[in-house]
Write a structure and sequence with these properties.
The chain is of the alpha/beta class and 478 residues long. It folds into 3 domains: 9-167, 5'-nuclease (Rossmann fold, 3-Layer(aba) Sandwich), CATH 3.40.50; 178-251, Beta Barrel (Elongation Factor Tu (Ef-tu), domain 3); 268-477, Rossmann fold, CATH 3.40.50. The chain is built from 15 helices and 18 strands. Helix 6 links the parallel strand 5 (146-149) and strand 6.
């Protein structure tokens, strides 16, 4: 219940700190989304209302990611309060307990606050109590910017309707504009050879031609980035090394040719060819493939996995997993073992295995049935829920629908990789089903942005749909 109070000691303490530093009031969902948000506001001060603490307490029970985050946020707060020798009302220095870049202070609501809200807003609701605190602080400190930080859109709308400053939590976003996301491929300018061909060196090694080029574009290139020049004589290559204004380019294997098919399939476009080149490279441990529905992400990843597992013997088995976020209503609990429970989520696996199995036309029905059984024995379907603490050795791990993972979940999965394991993440950041996750804050966007340029990782954004003319048109028109 929000109560009236007389002049408070706490707000005057807040006023002693620089007016240039903003005062951010944290909503509960920010802490439940990212517990480390307490240390992400640099020189600015934070204020945690009592209603936020109450909601953290209500959401701490369970094994979900939200419950774990609520417990972690409570641990951070408890640790800071326990170690702080001064008065809590004076504010707790964040730099002592977290990242040294957090030079602000944390204030907890230590007494009842009155903020008069319109009568139509129920005072017993936690959201409205937080809004009342923001309004009170704003009135008490007109020279400071008091801003509510919430991931709840409706909460931000209500705040702005009441004339209060409110914004989303941006620190978890890898990029503000996903149009700037690394695509893994770069079109070379038409005069590339004129401006970069002087003193060029070339040699052949391992079936590939290498070019050492020098010029103004070289410092902008990233290791394992694909470059192409479409002309009378198309040039497709991969950047192998960058050193100042010098770069080494390596020509690609042409997987569009039937001679270089991968488990019976060929690349149908330039980006699929790039994807197969990076997937079939055993020196690359981490691959991300982005693209809308029907671009062939799962098919090329699975074909490359089968080829390297069953024929080249590089990996011992394929492990496939995905986030179990339903598009519509949840159908409830499923019977059976872990693998049987995951089967309804693995329609994409079944569909692509059907395509790959039909490529072997000479084997006949019996041969195809034997191949299907062999493939089945080498593909394991696992749930994400039981990944923590595991180590995969010499496995080919495919994470499907990776756009629904948070950056923390993505880190948990990728760090499961042991010696000789390759991790392939597939997804479409335009189809996110997880609440509070956006294109900019998705774990898939996060890893694409942070892993680019590492010599043992590669990324390709697939742009052209190859499923059917109906699927292609629907993806554009609808």
């Amino acid at each position: 219940m929000i109560q009236r109070k007389t002049a408070s000691a706490q707000p005057s303490v807040i006023a002693r700190f620089p007016a240039t530093a903003k005062l951010f009031v944290l909503d509960t969902n920010v802490l439940m989304h990212d517990p480390t948000s307490l240390f992400r506001f640099q020189e600015h001060d934070l204020y945690v209302p009592m209603a936020t603490l109450e909601e953290l307490d209500n959401n701490k029970i369970g094994m979900s990611e939200v419950a774990r985050n609520a417990r972690q946020a409570s641990r951070y707060l408890d640790e800071m309060i326990t170690r702080w020798s001064g008065a809590i009302a004076d504010g707790i220095a964040l730099a002592v307990h977290g990242d040294k870049s957090a030079t602000g202070r944390l204030f907890l609501q230590t007494e009842a606050i009155n903020g008069e809200l319109p009568a139509r807003l129920a005072s017993g609701k936690s959201d409205n109590q937080i809004l009342a605190v923001v309004k009170h602080l704003q009135e008490l400190h007109p020279k400071r910017q008091v801003i509510l930080v919430s991931k709840d859109i409706n909460m931000r709308i209500k705040a702005r309707a009441l004339g209060l400053a409110a914004e989303d939590y941006f620190n978890d976003k890898a990029l503000e504009d996903t149009d700037l996301l690394y695509t893994g491929a770069r079109e070379l300018p038409g005069d590339f050879w004129d401006s970069h061909g002087k003193d060029m060196e070339s040699w052949q090694q391992g079936g590939h031609t290498y070019y050492r080029v020098r010029g103004p574009l070289c410092p902008k290139l990233l290791v394992n980035e694909f470059v192409y020049l479409e002309s009378d004589r198309p040039f497709h290559a991969q950047v192998k090394e960058v050193s100042g204004r010098t770069a080494i380019l390596m020509t690609l294997r042409d997987y569009t040719s039937q001679r270089h098919n991968v488990w019976g399939i060929n690349a149908r476009n330039r980006e699929q060819n790039f994807a197969l080149n990076i997937l079939m490279n055993p020196q690359v441990d981490f691959v991300t493939l982005l693209g809308q529905a029907g671009t062939g992400k799962t098919l090329v990843a699975l074909a490359a996995g089968l080829m390297q597992t069953l024929e080249h013997k590089i990996y011992s088995e394929i492990i496939m997993t995905r986030v179990t976020v339903p598009v519509g209503e949840d159908i409830g609990f499923l019977p059976g073992t872990e693998e049987e429970k995951m089967n309804p989520w693995m329609g994409a696996l079944e569909d692509n295995l059907d395509v790959l199995n039909k490529t072997d036309e000479e084997a006949g029905e019996w041969g195809r049935a034997a191949t299907r059984d062999l493939i089945r024995s080498r593909i394991k379907v696992k749930s994400l829920n039981f990944m923590r603490g595991r180590t995969f050795i010499q496995k080919y791990l495919i994470i499907d629908e990776a756009q629904n993972l948070t950056p923390k979940q993505m880190k948990t999965l990728i760090t499961r990789a042991g010696p000789g394991t390759k991790v392939v993440c597939l997804g479409n950041i335009a189809q996110i089903d997880t609440p509070y996750l956006t294109e900019g804050s998705s774990g898939l966007t996060f890893v694409v942005d942070h892993m680019k340029g590492w010599p043992h990782s590669g990324h390709v954004t697939l742009t052209r749909g190859e499923r059917s003319r109906l699927a292609d048109y629907a993806a554009e028109a609808l």
